Every structure is written in C-alpha cells, then in structure tokens.
Amino acid sequence: MRNFTTLDEITAAAGEELGTSEWVTIEQDRVNQFAEATGDHQWIHVDVERANDGPFGGPIAHGYLTLSLIPWLGSKVFSMETPGAKLNYGINKVRFPNPVLVGKRIRSTVTLGDVTDVPAGKQVTIRHLIEIEDEAKPACVAEMVVLLLA
After folding, report:
1. What is the rounded CA–CA span in Å between residue 111 and residue 108?
2. Percent of the chain with pLDDT over 70
3. Are 26 and 102 in contact (CB under 8 A)?
4. Phi-psi region of 130 (alpha: psi -120 to 50; beta: other; left: phi over 0)
5. What percentage of the chain's residues is helix, strand, coil (to nearest 5)?
C-alpha cells in the first residue's frame, strides 16, 4: 500500500505503477443492488434465467458498476493523505472491452499519470486497468482525474 502525505511526493511519483488491488468477486446481489440504486434493470444484468440463454451465457455486471468500484479498488493500492480536500474532477477516458460475468473476480492495477500544477493545488491523472481473472481482455480501462487542493 502506497501512502502519499505531501503533494511533492505525488509529483515525484508521476508515471509510476502503484500496484494492484486484491481480487473482488462480482456477485448477483451486488449487481441487483446496483440496478436498484440506478434504475438500470436491463435483463442482461438482473434476469438470471434469461441471461443464461443470452449472448454471454449468464448475467453480467453493469459497466458503470465496474467503474464505480474504482475508488474502493484504488484504496487497496494507495492513499492520498495530503492536506486539503481531494475532489473527483472527471474522467478523461473510459472503455469497457470485456463484460464481467457474475461470479467472476476483478482487480485493478493503478498507475499514477500526469501531475499538473493548477491554481488550487494539483491535478492528478490516475489510470486503472481492471482485469478479470482468467480473461485476456480487461473489464475496464479508465483514466480518472482528481484535484488535490493545497
């Protein structure tokens, strides 16, 4: 676990791979709860019987469920205990190259990207490669942007 306590430490680590999270199993209950929270009840996610006969041979996690796990997965790899607030600023790029079948395990490899000075502090790009256990293609590739206020 990498722990950053100053903005200078973060700047010095730009471009470094920070590590890989633990595996987490995507269970049907989590998919159902996400569907309830977002109102996305598409059958490919929540109708197990129909999904078993569908294009993937079973229900799949919502892409945005996978994306929403990035903060938790990232917290298993690094922390930013810098003074000042930490704000989600946006996402530069997100792709979902491979669906996550319910019951599969995922994890994230985190790389610190660009660290840029901005008037309020630092703008940090954090890349996440979310892989699926025993799959060649990742579930998600995302480039998150965080503002670290001075």
Report:
1. 10
2. 100
3. yes
4. beta
5. 25, 40, 35
Per residue in 42-98, pLDDT tens? 999 999 999 999 999 999 999 999 999 999 999 999 999 999 999 999 999 999 999
Burial of 137 (0-12, 13-18, 19+ CB in 10 A): exposed
The candidate with the shortest Cα–Cα distance to 139, out of 41, 29, 61, 74, is 61
Q: Where are the alpha helices (DSSP H) in the chain?
A: 7-12, 28-38, 43-46, 48-52, 63-68, 70-75
How many whole angstroms separate alpha carbon 62 and alpha carbon 71? 16
Enumerate the β-bridge partners of residue 117: 122
Tell me the HSE value of 40 on the side-chain side, using a 13 A CA sphere: 11
Mean pLDDT of the chain: 97
Cα separations in angstroms, 43 against 25, 76, 77, 137: 20, 32, 34, 24
Instruction: Look at the pTM and tell me if it is higher than 0.90.
Output: yes
Give the SS3 label for residue 42.
coil
CB count within 10 Å of CB 69 equals: 24
